[in-house]
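Example for tutorial group B:
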């Protein structure tokens, strides 16, 4: 299990290649890359804040839960913080398993829980000012399918 919370950008292809390199005991690698999106056309940047130890522990706990629920050989989570521009990579999740069903389900679970339970605070900055991103009901609703 690798959990990295970092300011610096990353190359998802290189990360995925390194993560799966040399593995002959697996049949599936699933990955998801999150990108800073600009839905309104006026986002200048997104500021992501966190408390390092709290965030690291929370994400490791989410990964541990996924690893107990599905047969995973390994998990990689990278999440950035700091100032990010639209189009920049914000996060990555990758799962490795002997079978694709476990890898897909675990990656989906991880994305739902990271979006709703990882302690990051996001502020969107536009030409009109800045505002904190509020939690969305649909994100909370997505968690119910994992009960």
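The residue assignment follows.
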């Amino acid at each position: 299990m690798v959990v990295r919370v970092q300011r610096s950008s990353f190359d998802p292809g290189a990360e995925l290649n390194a993560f799966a390199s040399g593995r002959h005991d697996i049949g599936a690698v699933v990955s998801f890359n999150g990108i800073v999106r600009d839905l309104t056309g006026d986002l200048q940047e997104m500021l992501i804040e966190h408390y390092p130890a709290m965030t690291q522990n929370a994400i490791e706990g989410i990964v541990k839960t996924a690893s107990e629920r599905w047969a995973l050989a390994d998990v990689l989570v990278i999440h950035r913080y700091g100032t990010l521009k639209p189009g920049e990579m914000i996060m990555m999740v990758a799962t490795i398993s002997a079978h694709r069903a476990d890898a897909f389900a675990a990656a989906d679970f991880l994305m739902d829980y990271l979006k709703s339970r990882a302690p990051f605070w996001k502020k969107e900055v536009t030409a009109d000012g800045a505002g904190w991103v509020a939690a969305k009901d649909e994100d909370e609703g997505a968690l119910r399918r994992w009960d």
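Residues 90 and 108 are 17 Å apart (CA to CA). Compare this with the pattern of hydrophobic and polar residues in the output above.
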